[in-house]
């Protein structure tokens, strides 16, 4: 084991400096306000959970979990996502009346990285969970809410891709026959390795018609016209029902006036294995990773002893900030620079300005080596120096 450098951080961990912190806070507040307007209530869960409950239910690979032992020898994990912890809370305390729940959160999650690769091991998610509603209206609501809060942040260049896990599974099972063969092919979709997908299909022992069905599947991307194309590939059953749900979803999003923001991508497969129905991802600008994702997970709560439909989404705050670019602060900070003999006057002036809503920094001039460099950090500076004179603005 090599010796650590003085300022070295654990792999994948990052510091958040003041400017970025302010940007995150501004964007987070905007999103939280939007979620509250739609009737979602915020909830907090512990950073540490039991591995046997939330850890195993989270669908995050075991190798990405941060694990430790408590004093009783139980294995704990730092929460790798927020959906599983909220499912635990909902199943244990909130679902007694069988009423739909609308819950929201903003919290850090932790996923260990084997190598840096630019990916953080700790990052903030902000999202919602609609629990207890099995209708497509609930899926449409969370998608419309996602679009709404993203627009509220000032983001304009983004696209939401919508797919359906059940459609993919049913199509692959119809053609390939076994779960194992279907999972092998779905792995290429999760990795977005479409070249590997095509080569794998060509090597399969299938009829030319079935091979062509699997290759045509990759073309199921676009607007409402994708619905008819999907029906031409699938036989009756679960797959056809999934297509009908997507058609209904399109109508719901259109009623929200947001159809221009979504596209169908039936090749979309999530790495979260608990998704059971409609799934979606959001991409923006030149950001290479999704800034948000979500979907329906009707079987997750069974792991906590409840049977209930649920859907939701999570926004990756760091990826969203990258998509937004620099955000100018509209809240100036006023600086009062004072000498010892006018300290009390400076304190009173600062109190008055803060009561009026301003942000104010108080600074004893004896603690500043370079006055010009220091005051240039602030939008406005007042000097209270010497025994006489009044407040004088810095020019």
**Class by alpha and beta content:** alpha+beta
**Mass-distribution shape:** elongated
Seen as an oligomer or otherwise, the chain set is single chain
**Under the CATH scheme, which class of the largest domain?**
Alpha Beta
Number of domains: 3
Tell me the series of helices and strands, N- to C-terminal. Answer: HEEHEEHEEHEHHHHEHHEEEEHEHEHEE
CATH superfamily membership of the largest domain, which one?
Bira Bifunctional Protein, Domain 2
Main pleated-sheet profile: 9 strands, mixed
Output the number of helix runs: 13
**Helical residues, percent:** 25-40%
Average pLDDT, all residues: 89
What's the end-to-end separation, in Å?
56 Å
Radius of gyration: 26 Å
Low-confidence stretches: none
Q: How would you write the strand order of the largest sheet?
A: 1-5-6-12-11-10-7-9-8
Number of strands: 16
How much of the residues is beta strand, in percent?
15-25%
CATH topology of the largest domain: BirA Bifunctional Protein, domain 2
The second-level CATH architecture of the largest domain is 2-Layer Sandwich
For this entry, give a set of tags.
single chain, 395 residues, alpha+beta, BirA Bifunctional Protein, domain 2, Rossmann fold, 3 domains, nine-stranded mixed beta sheet, four-stranded mixed beta sheet, 21% strand, elongated, histidine biosynthesis
């Amino acid at each position: 084991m090599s010796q650590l450098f003085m300022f070295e951080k654990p792999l994948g961990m990052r510091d958040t400096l003041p400017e970025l912190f302010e940007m995150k806070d501004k964007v987070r507040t905007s999103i939280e306000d939007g979620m509250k307007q739609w009737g979602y209530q915020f909830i907090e869960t512990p950073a540490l959970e039991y591995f046997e409950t939330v850890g195993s239910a989270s669908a995050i690979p075991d190798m990405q979990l941060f694990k430790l032992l408590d004093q009783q020898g139980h294995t704990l994990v730092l929460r790798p996502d927020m959906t599983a912890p909220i499912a635990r809370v909902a199943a244990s305390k909130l679902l007694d009346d069988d009423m739909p729940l609308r819950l929201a959160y903003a919290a850090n999650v932790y996923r260990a990285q084997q190598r840096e690769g630019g990916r953080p091991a700790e990052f903030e998610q902000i999202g919602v969970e609609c629990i207890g509603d099995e209708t497509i209206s609930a899926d449409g609501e969370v998608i419309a809410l996602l679009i709404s809060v993203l627009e509220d942040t000032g983001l304009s260049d983004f696209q939401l891709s919508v797919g359906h896990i059940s459609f993919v599974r049913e199509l692959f099972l119809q053609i390939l026959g076994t779960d194992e063969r279907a999972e092998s092919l779905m792995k290429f979709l999760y990795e977005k390795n479409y070249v590997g997908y095509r080569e794998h299909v060509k090597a399969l022992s299938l009829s030319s018609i079935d091979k062509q069905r699997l290759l045509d599947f990759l073309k199921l991307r676009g607007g409402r016209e994708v619905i008819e194309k999907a029906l031409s590939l699938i036989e009756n059953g679960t797959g056809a029902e999934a297509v009908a749900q997507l058609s209904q979803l399109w109508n719901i999003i259109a009623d929200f006036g947001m159809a221009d923001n979504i596209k169908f991508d039936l090749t979309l497969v999530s790495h979260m294995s608990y998704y059971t129905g409609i799934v979606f991802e959001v991409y923006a600008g030149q950001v290479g990773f999704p800034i948000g994702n979500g979907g329906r997970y009707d079987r997750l709560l069974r792991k906590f002893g409840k049977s209930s439909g649920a859907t939701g989404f999570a926004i990756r705050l760091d990826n969203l900030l990258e998509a937004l670019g620099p955000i100018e602060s509209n809240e100036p900070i006023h600086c009062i620079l004072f000498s010892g003999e006018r300290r009390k006057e400076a304190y009173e002036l600062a109190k008055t300005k803060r009561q009026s809503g301003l942000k104010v920094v108080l600074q004893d001039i004896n603690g500043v080596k370079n006055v010009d460099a220091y005051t240039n950090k602030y939008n406005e500076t007042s000097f209270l120096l010497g025994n006489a004179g009044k407040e004088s603005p810095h020019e």
